[in-house]
Amino acid sequence: MIEQRNEIPHLILAAKVRKGLSWSTIADALGQSKEWATAACLGQMALDANQARTVAELFELPEDAAAWLRTVPHKAADNLASDPLVYRLYEVIHVYGGAMKELIHEEFGDGIMSAIDFDMDIQRQDDPKGDRVRIVMTGKFLPYKRY
Amino acid sequence: MIEQRNEIPHLILAAKVRKGLSWSTIADALGQSKEWATAACLGQMALDANQARTVAELFELPEDAAAWLRTVPHKAADNLASDPLVYRLYEVIHVYGGAMKELIHEEFGDGIMSAIDFDMDIQRQDDPKGDRVRIVMTGKFLPYKRY
Amino acid sequence: MIEQRNEIPHLILAAKVRKGLSWSTIADALGQSKEWATAACLGQMALDANQARTVAELFELPEDAAAWLRTVPHKAADNLASDPLVYRLYEVIHVYGGAMKELIHEEFGDGIMSAIDFDMDIQRQDDPKGDRVRIVMTGKFLPYKRY
Amino acid sequence: MIEQRNEIPHLILAAKVRKGLSWSTIADALGQSKEWATAACLGQMALDANQARTVAELFELPEDAAAWLRTVPHKAADNLASDPLVYRLYEVIHVYGGAMKELIHEEFGDGIMSAIDFDMDIQRQDDPKGDRVRIVMTGKFLPYKRY
Amino acid sequence: MIEQRNEIPHLILAAKVRKGLSWSTIADALGQSKEWATAACLGQMALDANQARTVAELFELPEDAAAWLRTVPHKAADNLASDPLVYRLYEVIHVYGGAMKELIHEEFGDGIMSAIDFDMDIQRQDDPKGDRVRIVMTGKFLPYKRY
Amino acid sequence: MIEQRNEIPHLILAAKVRKGLSWSTIADALGQSKEWATAACLGQMALDANQARTVAELFELPEDAAAWLRTVPHKAADNLASDPLVYRLYEVIHVYGGAMKELIHEEFGDGIMSAIDFDMDIQRQDDPKGDRVRIVMTGKFLPYKRY
Amino acid sequence: MIEQRNEIPHLILAAKVRKGLSWSTIADALGQSKEWATAACLGQMALDANQARTVAELFELPEDAAAWLRTVPHKAADNLASDPLVYRLYEVIHVYGGAMKELIHEEFGDGIMSAIDFDMDIQRQDDPKGDRVRIVMTGKFLPYKRY
Amino acid sequence: MIEQRNEIPHLILAAKVRKGLSWSTIADALGQSKEWATAACLGQMALDANQARTVAELFELPEDAAAWLRTVPHKAADNLASDPLVYRLYEVIHVYGGAMKELIHEEFGDGIMSAIDFDMDIQRQDDPKGDRVRIVMTGKFLPYKRY
Amino acid sequence: MIEQRNEIPHLILAAKVRKGLSWSTIADALGQSKEWATAACLGQMALDANQARTVAELFELPEDAAAWLRTVPHKAADNLASDPLVYRLYEVIHVYGGAMKELIHEEFGDGIMSAIDFDMDIQRQDDPKGDRVRIVMTGKFLPYKRY
Amino acid sequence: MIEQRNEIPHLILAAKVRKGLSWSTIADALGQSKEWATAACLGQMALDANQARTVAELFELPEDAAAWLRTVPHKAADNLASDPLVYRLYEVIHVYGGAMKELIHEEFGDGIMSAIDFDMDIQRQDDPKGDRVRIVMTGKFLPYKRY
Question: Would strands G111-125 and G132-143 be described as parallel, antiparallel, or unpaired?
Fold first, then answer.
């Protein structure tokens, strides 16, 4: 029996290793992008009833897992912050964050890019000098309300 | 006379306000993308001799500014981390960082996306439900060396 | 001459003390709520051209202040976090944050209350057992995008 | 047998998932608002004898749970601080905290809004541009004692 | 001219050293306890008009000081936390905080001792084995509201 | 069998809930003040042989508990720092710490109030405007040694 | 059965103590340098299929260990930062980091030494005044991209 | 006149930019390695009388600079920790620190590599796949004393 | 079976309580000073084969403990930092650290006192005004290398 | 004119460099040990009237310095914590703090070594294998009060 929702990502990762599944396969089964599906399996998104059942079956999770997967999780872990791959992403913001702020305000005025009405796509970009990771993010621009 | 390199971004921002310049104009004058040019003006990139002279003239900086602009700065400020626009960028990594790690490793194996051999493009993406900020990043994949 | 935007709130506060102005008066002059107007004067909101000129005149700010006030500031200071009045606000979230998360998700599903498309109203609520501070906040609910 | 009081919220959440209960139902059973009741179930409030028995039965908790629920808990968790929903609440204070302080002092003088003699109400506010979360808080104003 | 309110305590301390004043004298001039008066001079309390004028004269502060002293300060500094005298006070809470919580709840139920409706008295207590510092604090008990 | 001394306070609290004991009763059994006795049961003081046996019997602790209770514990927990009741105590020092330092030095010269040769008494103080918590602390003044 | 990848280094270290193996022996079995092999066994590198099988056999790990060892770990622990040996390494960067930055930029221009396309060799260097630890690191220089 | 020793590195860097000097030239003038000389100019090493005079003349420092340069500085700054070049050096220790500890103990037993009786050499290493930074460090092994 | 080396100090402390051993007795059995022996038992020093066997027998540790005790531990815990006895030691350095630095440099020049080639002796010093703790530390002076 | 007490140590250090004074000379002039005198000059101790006048003259401080030197300073700086010499002192406590606690309690029972009724002596100890720094500290043992 599952005692806390944050046990599930560990169960999923262990089952994924054991069964040799890929994230793409899992995304297909869920009918979502691989980015959303992976984040969901890692405990960052709530699933609907069908998806929860699919994930529970795919990874042979305990009986009550599907109910847990439908609840909204506590999101936004930062325990990976010093991992070299993840750190590079933070560093991009350390180096470019000020410029991104200036350029988005220059184009849109005062407001933010939503991290909720947001999507992301990660692809390999072939390059003769060494293939590149290509990350495309779009988020709705939200202007600050005046009142 | 400039005593430390990190005085220059303040001088540039003040001149930009005073003169009403846009980052795009500045980027054109430098012959670089607006992303790189803005980051450079905010003290995150070293300029070559021509660029340094251009920036010094454009913003009417003190005489020794051009020499300072050619030095490599201390990069990667995080004093903007709680600004709402910048925070959303960090939050994207809090929420998606684990998934990004999984997906890049699934596609490329062990290694990282370079934050050095890296570029970024920020655009407005028209959308009837509200325009979106579109950010495209590419970075060379670097595999961990085995030896 | 103003060197950085964050000098302006200090200039405004000093002029407010010297002239004995109230925030309500200032809000009326700006044609905005007292909550938005105060936040703007404290460096948390960008002003439009008219508002910037009004504030500059009202507080007799230096010539370049109006131009600075139209730029988007670096927002979200937390240097007041241990002030007793401000701390109580944080404590409300320490104590009720989990419950607020549960109840908003129960009503709306996965998503957040926007802090950008957001307004706030603070009033005195008469009470024979001691008057109360009444704070009303509304923020647009933003559902997490699925893709 | 329960070893520490902070085990109980996990037991309650697990039972809630298993049984598909809603916070409103629980609040009704307790005869309190949904805000207070949820906070209490999450370990932030002490229950009276009847309430403790009701909660213990509703969630089929171990025998000694009712006695534990009557004790005053260690309150004020901040382990949710980076969750996007909860973070927005903190950000509101980062952005508006200074203004709130100014406006409450302007109206009431030196003192604070109590976080103890305090209540909160969360509702859906219909809005054709997208429904809003409406949060109303009232807290007794407490003037600083002079002596 | 004073630019920020937190300059005043430095001006007061410097004048106090120069003039050789004692806190008791200052308290008498203010007509308040030495505890409240000292805290006020150190920037932790707002003064009324008479008190502000008295303090400004006593310490020969700049002209605008009296107006500043009437504003509510940003309170609650912790920059003294490692000073040995102040640290001992914190340590008392590290060691006894849990016990104080238990005993106040045992006597009063769920709630807190107010730090706002609060007073303090510090005296020398003669003792043949070495004189003691005697600190008496009283704060109104505030029960948690149920609703 | 007890593996670490810091398991004992949890065992004591659980037994106290189960048996419905009060701290006053426990203090009487130990022949100490309720403040010292409670701190000791919460793992902040070493007990003598008689007291250790008394506590072990009263709470029906495992056989080796009495021996552990006679050892000097690792003291000074701060895991309660954000609990509202305990936070108010810290806040008193944030607000008054500078004044307490000034007043103790004015009376005694350079030195500290001991937190070791120290006692504390907590009482209810009846008050028609609402009962108050009254805390009396005395600590030996220790002058800094000159050499 | 292994629940998380970070259990494996503990299993390896325990087996290494039990069996009295040396890191050099392990490196030989893996066909890699002792530096890479040790880091891999401590959970910092992904192994290929042969290596994973070798490590699993050598240390008699549970059945599913080999599959886990092929996954990319969460890297970059800093829980050793205060260990005296490890601290000296950090201190070298505290003391020399600025100089290293200056000298690498003087030789190569703006960019970094890769920590991914990187190798390290640690040897004993005989010295009559006391043997020395000799550490040789090489990392590819990566110039900052201009675009 | 110099008020604190840590003003000198800023003066040196500003003069270096103005005069277009290289660290190698400076090292030659000092008769030390470029690594030691650069660290010394950046405020990490004490200079002898001749060296102090040489540096003061070379950079046309104020009269009292030579006397300051002979004093032992407060060493070990970490304000560069998030600079990408410097971060990579820290990351090497995050990733390899455990392995370095294991391998040095395997070879030498319990003890450390000295960061005081220590030297470092940084060179370009030609490589057809991209030149590499080569860093050689040696430090005396110091065994833990038994007594 | 022991899974990690840091379980051993807990086993030793529990056995010491159970058997009523003193640190002096243990030191005699090890043939080392009480300071070194106690630090070793608390997981700060590696033991030789004889010592490891002695400790394992004395405290009736599990079979594999002796092998673990011979490995070099992860040293330098700071989880006691707020304990009043330990804090006083840190405070001595907060108060005297600058003076110690000045005086050691005045006597020896640039360098440090080794914490590795180091010993310590703790004794009771009789004193009619109250016995004193006397701590004598000696550490080899290590001059900074010039090169 | 001196605005804050913590300006004085900088003035003293600058004068000491300019005049080439040694701490021993200063201590003799003050009639105190070099350890106490140095700490006092670095802003950690209050001076009496004669001493304050002596220091003010010796270092040619501004007129009001003597009055400031007689006030009790804010003590206990930790801004030197990463300096290698000072860090070694902290590391000694990281490594030996647990053992020091055990041994002082074994000898004296529950209590602390005072850091107030405390003295320290630092000497060179000749040693053919390299001279040693010898630090002797004594502090009064203070038993925890029972009540």
Answer: antiparallel
Give dist(CA F55, CA F28) in Å, integer: 11
Cα distances from H78 to residues E62, H118, J11, in angstroms, run 40, 19, 26
CA proximity to J137, closest of J117, J108, J110: J117
| Cα separation, J31 vs J50, whole angstroms | 10
C-beta of residue J43 within 8 angstroms of C-beta of residue J6: yes
Three-state secondary-structure class, residue G79? coil
- Judge if D5-70 and D84-143 fold alike in CATH terms: no
Judge: D98–C131 Cβ closer than 8 Å, yes or no: no
R_g (Cα) of chain D, nearest Å: 18
Nearest-Cα distance to chain D for A75, in Å, is 5
Where are chain B's structural domains? 5-69, 81-109, 111-147
Distance in angstroms (rounded) separating the CA atoms of residues G3 and F135 = 50
Lookup result for tokens 């808080």: D137
CA E7/CA G44 separation, integer angstroms: 51
Q: Rounded distance, CA J125 to CA J135, Å?
A: 10
Cα-to-chain-centroid distance, residue I109: 28
CATH superfamily of F110-147: Cyanate lyase, C-terminal domain (3.30.1160.10)
Going by C-alpha positions, the residue among J28, J70, J31 that lies closest to residue J48 is J70
For the segment D71-123, what is each residue's pLDDT rounded down to a tens digit? 999 999 778 899 999 999 999 999 999 999 999 999 999 999 999 999 999 99
**J146 flagged as catalytic:** no
Whether the predicted pLDDT of I20 surpasses 80? yes
Residues of chain A with pLDDT under 70: none
d(CA C106, CA J95): 51
Whether I114 and chain H come into contact, CB under 8 Å, resolves to yes
Crossing angle, helix F49-58 and helix F34-41, to 10 degrees?
70
Q: Phi, psi (5° rounding) for residue J116?
A: -110, -55
- Stretches in chain G below the pLDDT threshold 50: none
Q: Is the Cα torsion angle I118, I119, I122, I126 positive or negative in sign? A: negative
Task: State pLDDT tens for residues E49-108.
Answer: 999 999 999 999 999 999 999 999 999 977 889 999 999 999 999 999 999 999 999 999
CATH of domain F5-70: 1.10.260.40
Report CA-CA distances (Å) from E143 to A107, D53, E104, F92: 52, 22, 11, 19
- Looking at residue I79, its pLDDT comes to 83
Phi, psi dihedral angles at A43 (to 5 degrees) = 90, 30
A125 vs G: CB within 8 A = no
**CATH, range B111-147:** 3.30.1160.10
For residue C55, which amino acid is it? V
Regarding pTM above 0.90, the answer is yes
Percentage of residues in chain H having pLDDT higher than 70:
100
Tell me which chain I residues have a C-beta less than 8 angstroms from the C-beta of H72.
101, 105, 109-110
Residue G118 CA to residue G44 CA, distance in Å, equals 14
- Tens of pLDDT along I69-113? 999 999 997 788 999 999 999 999 999 999 999 999 999 999 999
Architecture of domain A5-69: Orthogonal Bundle (1.10)
Q: Which chains border I (3 or more CB–CB pairs < 8 Å)? A: E, F, G, H, J
Contact, G2 vs A14, CB < 8 A? yes
**What are the backbone dihedrals phi and psi of residue J93, each rounded to the nearest 5 degrees, phi first?**
-75, -35
Architecture of domain E84-143: 2-Layer Sandwich (3.30)
Tokens of J26: 């200063």
Minimal C-alpha gap between I125 and chain G (Å): 31
Nearest CA of chain B to the CA of G5: how many Å? 14
Report yes or no: H76 and H43 within 8 Å, Cβ to Cβ.
Answer: no
DSSP β-bridge partners for residue J119: J138
